[in-house]
């Protein structure tokens, strides 16, 4: 009779951690004050979990920025350039997370990447040949001591050695396998320290084994765990997986000496089949991931109990668990005081999920039928608002609705003529800094302290100023700055029918940054123009082209909480038609370049290659094509993707049939460029020439070097110059300085190109 969570949100119900870390970075509070706030948040989480009846309090899941970075620092995997800054441990940690620039010293941040198929991001641990892996920290143990002072049943968690090695970057000769012995030795030292505490379970997270695994991967995994589990330990070890199933390695998992296995029965499509066919060892505990850790809907107890009943385990070796960490959901539905009760009754955030675990436990182990019936009533009453016109529009779509003509090469000629841009056109990704005054203006409008006209007047002033700034700085294709948007997805959700919104349902995206995903509740459609007035106003201020700026259907879908009663394909096609309406409206109003951001397209690519097309790209790519299929050949369609981890799906990206794409490249050392070349990528490209996730200002020389590297691989007439993502999170001073350097590096390159031409 046990219940389990894999992890809990840590930003605080009111984003206390965000405010505290940002104050610390500005020097407004010191380390002790920051630690006190963090301790308060941990305490509150533990208390909440204890009160809910959860079997074990979860520790080890807190982080000031990211758990994988914590692990790397715990194991001394800290590149020399950060150690050389001679900062204290916390500031060394933040330097890796955010980059560092002070008193003539300048170091870039570590690369930031998507955590599997989520909108959470981790920092990539970097190993070089001199990395000396060893146990070098003690926060994990300190937290355990603190929790054990107040709570009896405590578990802790740690990302496992295999996932660490799979996600790490190896910059020297030595590769993952070479580091494995040292990594295992360091984990053994962690075991030794944990032995000093009254720990119930150690949860070792190994989500990397839900990927397709090679024989070498399996061999490495077995080698690591045979060795590690030989270390004496007085706590039990649960090998925890999530985001998929473990079909490639289940046989090994049940042979190894784990006390428990955590399997995901929701995203793990084959998990049930695997345990059904192969059985589950009676001497191990199954942590059955049956309560969704990613969605925000009430759990259907009947369905979950039926699932639990199918598992080949007894009451003694079953733990009812979440499918993944609750890091990916907001804290508390009760904070949503303005949400209609008929919607609210269907929602479940982290606090409610704790209660659901308790209910499921009571139903499954103690036969509490009343709770089952009560829950069923909620599901009997659910009504998603239907729009038959939207449904018909989706049904009536023909293959030709997804195809733009003429072909891209012909459009390219027409567009080059129309825009007559210089070589290496410069642009930005869309947003400019959302400075305090911008946020305050929106906050005052929301609170009714200023009216719509006053709100709009402020934004118009901002647009005017930034258009002027871009003209003076020498940009070729301008943007309006996105000052009217709280978030690129939430804003569109707010302007489309079919979405509902929360006030406090924040979810961590990276570091101190959080998002408040809108909830897709009914059929989606565009009821009124969304960006037309803003874009036409911005265009009226300049003779240079101003990009119309939209978020694409796949990204709106992926960064919202989706409904589960219709398929993703159906939902995303509805959104695509709504955005198509907006695209055509922008074009009708004279906007000649339209950027449709698909920042999240790569994010939800299934983790297993066999599912890439059938489960995702076969509907995601057409959804994007549908959005722009009806524009004129001379209208230039841009798209943007955060993070360039799409080496393997380059043909699918090209098949989006956009005219220009911009993406992140600088943090991942431009490796994508080789792949573009290899795959004869046809879309014009703007590989980001500097990293906007860090406050660090890149020098003109640095950007010039990056452009040179790009031009060594890609033809000059295909290349655009831009930062790697929107600038909304940055301050103005650093933004303007960085962009000025970008323009001067481009001008320098143009001059060199024309000089070479003259010479030739
Ligand atoms: C591009 N990215 C995005 C992702 N996901 C999205 N949904 N959106 C994205 O843009 N994923 C990948 C990348 C990187 N991820 C992020 C995620 C989040 C941010 C970010 O800047 N977040 C802001 C919050 C943005 C927002 O919604 N702001 C609102 C509310 C602002 C607010 O806090 N208001 C205060 C009151 C303000 C006052 O009075 O001063 C309050 O509510 O208490 C808004 O602007 O209206 C963050 O701060 O975390 C960036 C990249
Ligand atoms: N147009 C958006 C894209 C971010 S991914 C922005 O500039 O913020
Ligand atoms: Zn981006």
UniProtKB/TrEMBL annotation:
Name of the molecule in the record: 5-methyltetrahydropteroyltriglutamate--homocysteine methyltransferase
Chain sites annotated for binding Zn(2+): 640, 642, 664, 725
Listed cofactors: Zn(2+)
GO molecular function: 5-methyltetrahydropteroyltriglutamate-homocysteine S-methyltransferase activity
Organism field: Eupransor demetentiae
Domain Cobalamin-independent methionine synthase MetE C-terminal/archaeal: 424-747
Record's function text: Catalyzes the transfer of a methyl group from 5-methyltetrahydrofolate to homocysteine resulting in methionine formation.
Domain of life: Bacteria
Residues holding L-homocysteine: 429-431, 482, 597
PANTHER family in the cross-refs: 5-METHYLTETRAHYDROPTEROYLTRIGLUTAMATE--HOMOCYSTEINE METHYLTRANSFERASE
Pathway in which the depicted protein is active: Amino-acid biosynthesis; L-methionine biosynthesis via de novo pathway; L-methionine from L-homocysteine (MetE route): step 1/1
Cofactor note: Binds 1 zinc ion per subunit.
């Amino acid at each position: 009779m046990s219940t389990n969570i894999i992890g809990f949100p840590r930003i605080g119900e009111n984003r206390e951690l965000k405010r505290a870390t940002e104050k610390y970075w500005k020097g407004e509070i010191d380390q002790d004050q920051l630690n006190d706030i963090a301790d308060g948040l941990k305490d509150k989480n533990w208390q909440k979990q204890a009160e809910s009846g959860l079997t074990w309090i979860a520790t080890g899941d807190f982080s000031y920025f990211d758990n994988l970075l914590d692990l790397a620092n715990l194991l001394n995997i800290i590149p020399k350039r950060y150690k050389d800054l001679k900062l204290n441990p916390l500031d060394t940690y933040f330097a890796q997370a955010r980059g560092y620039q002070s008193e003539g010293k300048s170091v870039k941040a570590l690369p930031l990447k998507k955590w599997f198929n989520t909108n959470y991001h981790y920092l990539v641990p970097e190993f070089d040949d001199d990395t000396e892996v060893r146990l070098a920290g003690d926060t994990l143990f300190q937290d355990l001591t603190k929790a054990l002072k107040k709570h009896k049943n405590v578990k802790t968690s740690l990302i496992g050695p295999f996932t660490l090695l799979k996600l790490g970057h190896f910059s020297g000769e030595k590769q993952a396998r070479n580091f494995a012995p040292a990594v295992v030795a360091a984990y053994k030292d962690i075991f030794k320290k944990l032995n000093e505490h009254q720990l119930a379970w150690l949860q070792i997270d190994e989500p990397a084994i839900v990927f397709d695994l090679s024989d070498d991967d399996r061999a490495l995994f077995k080698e690591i765990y045979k060795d590690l589990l030989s270390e004496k330990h007085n706590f039990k070890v649960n090998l925890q997986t999530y985001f998929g199933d473990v079909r490639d390695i289940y046989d090994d998992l049940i042979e190894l000496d784990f006390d428990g296995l955590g399997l995901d029965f929701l995203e793990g499509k084959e998990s049930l089949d695997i345990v059904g066919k192969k059985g589950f060892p009676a001497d191990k505990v199954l942590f059955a991931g049956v309560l969704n850790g990613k969605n925000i809907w009430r759990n259907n107890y009947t369905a979950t109990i039926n699932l639990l009943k199918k598992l080949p385990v007894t009451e003694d070796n079953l733990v009812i668990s979440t499918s993944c960490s609750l890091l990916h959901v907001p804290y508390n539905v009760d904070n949503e005081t303005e949400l209609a009760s008929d919607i609210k009754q269907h929602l479940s955030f982290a606090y409610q999920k704790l209660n659901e675990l308790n209910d499921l436990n009571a139903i499954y182990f103690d036969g509490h039928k009343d709770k089952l019936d009560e829950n069923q009533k909620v599901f009997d009453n659910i009504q998603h608002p239907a729009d038959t016109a939207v449904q018909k529009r989706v049904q009536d779509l023909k293959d030709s609705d997804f195809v733009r003509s003429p072909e891209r090469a012909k459009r390219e000629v027409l567009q080059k003529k129309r825009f007559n841009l210089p070589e290496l056109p410069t642009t930005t990704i869309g947003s400019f800094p959302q400075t305090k005054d911008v946020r305050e203006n929106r906050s005052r409008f929301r609170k009714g302290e200023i009216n719509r006209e006053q709100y709009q007047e402020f934004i118009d002033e901002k647009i005017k100023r930034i258009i002027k700034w871009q003209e003076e700085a020498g940009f070729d294709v301008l943007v309006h700055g996105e000052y009217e948007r709280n978030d690129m997805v939430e804003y569109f959700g707010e302007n489309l029918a079919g979405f509902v919104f929360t006030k406090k349902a924040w979810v961590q995206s990276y570091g101190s940054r959080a998002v408040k995903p809108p909830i897709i509740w009914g059929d989606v459609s565009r009821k009124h123009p969304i960006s037309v007035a803003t874009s036409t106003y911005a265009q009226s201020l300049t003779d240079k082209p101003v990009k119309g700026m939209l978020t694409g259907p796949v990204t709106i879908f992926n960064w919202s909480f989706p409904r589960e009663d219709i398929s993703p394909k159906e939902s995303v096609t509805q959104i695509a038609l709504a955005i198509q309406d907006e695209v055509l409206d922008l074009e009708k109003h004279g906007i000649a370049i339209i950027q449709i951001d698909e920042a999240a397209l790569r994010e939800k690519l299934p983790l297993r290659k066999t599912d890439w097309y059938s489960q995702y790209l076969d509907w995601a790519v057409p959804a994007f094509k549908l959005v722009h299929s009806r524009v004129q050949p001379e209208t230039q369609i841009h798209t943007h993707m955060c993070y360039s981890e799409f080496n393997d799906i380059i043909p699918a990206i090209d098949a989006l049939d956009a005219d220009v794409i911009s993406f992140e490249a600088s943090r991942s050392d431009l490796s994508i460029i080789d792949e573009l070349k290899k795959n004869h990528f046809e879309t014009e490209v703007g590989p980001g020439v500097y990293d906007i996730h860090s406050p660090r200002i890149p020098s003109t020389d640095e950007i010039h070097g990056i452009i040179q590297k790009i031009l060594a691989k890609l033809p000059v007439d295909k290349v655009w110059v831009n930062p790697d993502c929107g600038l909304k999170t940055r301050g103005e001073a650093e933004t303007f300085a960085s962009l000025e350097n970008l323009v001067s590096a481009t001008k320098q390159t143009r001059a060199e190109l024309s000089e070479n031409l003259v010479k030739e």
